[in-house]
Each structure stands twice: as structure tokens, then as C-alpha cells.
Design goal:
The chain is α+β, with helices and mostly antiparallel strands. The chain has a domain of about 40 residues: Antimicrobial Peptide, Beta-defensin 2, Chain A (Roll), CATH 3.10.360.10. Helix content is about 25%, strand content about 25%. The chain contains 2 helices and 4 strands. A 4-stranded mixed beta sheet has the order 1-3-4-2. The longest helix is centred in the N-terminal third of the chain and has 11 residues. The N and C termini lie far apart (about 50 Å). The relative contact order is 0.20.
């Protein structure tokens, strides 16, 4: 009975996540296809980060 909460937590942590709910590593072309643009270091103020273009670039979108 005490193992059940641990099992549920493990299922949540290791279950596959649906695409589009978290920032995703993608190419610059994929970022542009999603209506965004690549920006180094950070996105400009007022613009949200929606993914990654590379290790040093973020995909930003209004």
C-alpha cells in the first residue's frame, strides 16, 4: 500500500510527454515554421521563449 504513491510518481516522471507543451530543441527552420525567430542568449523583453534553435540560440515568439 505504501509503494503505490512511489509507483504513481515514477509513472508521471517517466511517461512520454505530448509535443508542444514544453520548449523543444529544433532547427531555425522549425522555429520559423512555428512563427518564431532565433535569438542568441535570450529573447527580447515582452517576447516569450518557445523552444531552442541550437545550444546558444532560443526560439522566440510573441
Amino acid at each position: 500500500l505504501h509503494i503505490q504513491p512511489i509507483f504513481i510518481l515514477t509513472e508521471i516522471l517517466f511517461s512520454p510527454r505530448p509535443a508542444g507543451l514544453s520548449p523543444v530543441r529544433a532547427s531555425a527552420q522549425e522555429c520559423e515554421r512555428r512563427g518564431g525567430f532565433c535569438s542568441q542568449r535570450s529573447c527580447p523583453p515582452g517576447i516569450g521563449r518557445v523552444g531552442l534553435c541550437s545550444e546558444q540560440e532560443f526560439c522566440c515568439r510573441m
